[in-house]
């Protein structure tokens, strides 16, 4: 098995398969560069928990282009074969979205160049801009003025436009099975046990399931459309360059209900209100702008909208309880434990109110 450890000196890479990847690109293994590749310059290297990211300047006969090479790390819960298939699938999905997306100055897709599953590598065009989450923190905290609010609203509106385009171009001739959603939620309710403490007792579990089942007759066929869903369409996976929106990371792509992505983004914005630097009126304005961008027909208190919000709240609840936000081997700071207890209490209160338990 090849060792994929990267040994670095400033902008110099030794003993790594990145050189082989660049060699293949230089031999003209793809059509992205359109002209002869003369050389490469490593601009930046970033070590991430699940990958290594290289920002590379490609020197061409006709000038230069910048690209990203992401080398995924082998994880303990996945085989080499499955990781390679995962990388190949992410490439194919990203290429499909890019090829079908109707690009405007409001949104576009990150171009996939080539993948090398044998090196756990994915090569894309360079992605400029800042994460939406960072932009919201910068411009939306405390008492943002009208100009800042309008800027953030326009970006969230464009996120809605982008998501609608992805969904429209991946629409399937299927009907979403609501019973699968209820089964998914029930499994997570049963698994919410921490330190032998049952978080969702039987009364609450049955109350949530009863609420979900009662919604089924009120849901129209139009709301059961199946589309290609990103799976993690949130502010931490969206890049903003000026006001142009680009979505990253297709690793969780699957065919699911159109409301999976819509409510996921909505709930991610909702979660920002856990931080006291944000005012509810600001976050609600961003949520409304996003929904309007997707469709003026989105109604946030629709039964299916609320069913998916229940799903996301329970998933967020479990993530906090199980400590998935803490790096392995680390201890959660005391103040974080107190904060998480407060958030979990709010989640329970919200579920109790929505499900009338």
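Sequence proposed for the structure above (357 residues):
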């Amino acid at each position: 098995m090849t060792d994929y450890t990267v040994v670095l000196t400033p902008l110099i890479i030794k003993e790594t398969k990145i050189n082989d990847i660049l060699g293949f690109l230089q031999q003209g293994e793809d059509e992205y560069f359109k002209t002869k590749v003369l050389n490469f310059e490593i601009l930046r290297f970033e070590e991430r928990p699940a990958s290594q990211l290289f920002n590379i300047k490609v020197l061409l006969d006709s000038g230069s282009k910048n690209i990203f090479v992401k080398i995924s790390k082998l994880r303990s819960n996945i085989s080499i074969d499955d990781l390679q298939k995962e990388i190949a699938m992410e490439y194919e999905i990203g290429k499909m979205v890019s090829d079908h997306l109707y690009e405007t100055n409001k949104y576009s897709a990150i171009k996939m160049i080539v993948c090398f599953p044998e090196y756990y590598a994915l090569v894309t065009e360079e992605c400029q801009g800042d994460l939406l989450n960072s932009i919201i923190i910068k411009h939306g905290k405390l008492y943002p003025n009208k100009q800042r609010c309008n800027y953030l609203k326009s970006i969230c509106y464009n996120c809605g436009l982008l998501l609608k385009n992805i969904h429209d171009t991946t629409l399937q001739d299927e009907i979403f099975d609501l019973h699968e959603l209820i089964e998914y939620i029930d499994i997570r309710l049963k698994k919410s046990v921490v330190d032998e403490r049952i978080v969702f007792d039987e009364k609450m579990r049955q109350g949530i399931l009863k609420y979900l089942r009662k919604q089924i007759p009120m849901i129209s066929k139009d709301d059961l459309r199946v589309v290609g869903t990103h799976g993690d369409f949130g502010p931490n996976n969206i890049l903003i360059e000026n006001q142009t929106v680009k979505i990253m990371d297709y690793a969780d792509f699957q065919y699911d209900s159109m409301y999976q992505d819509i409510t996921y983004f909505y709930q991610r914005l909702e979660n920002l209100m856990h931080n006291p630097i944000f005012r509810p009126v600001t976050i609600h304005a961003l949520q409304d702008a996003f929904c309007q961008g997707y469709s003026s027909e989105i109604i946030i208190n629709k039964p299916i909208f609320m069913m998916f919000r229940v799903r996301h709240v329970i998933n967020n609840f479990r993530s906090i309880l199980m400590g998935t936000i803490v790096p392995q081997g680390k201890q959660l700071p005391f103040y974080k434990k107190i904060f998480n207890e407060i958030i979990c209490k709010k989640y329970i209160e919200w579920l109790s109110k929505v499900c009338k338990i």
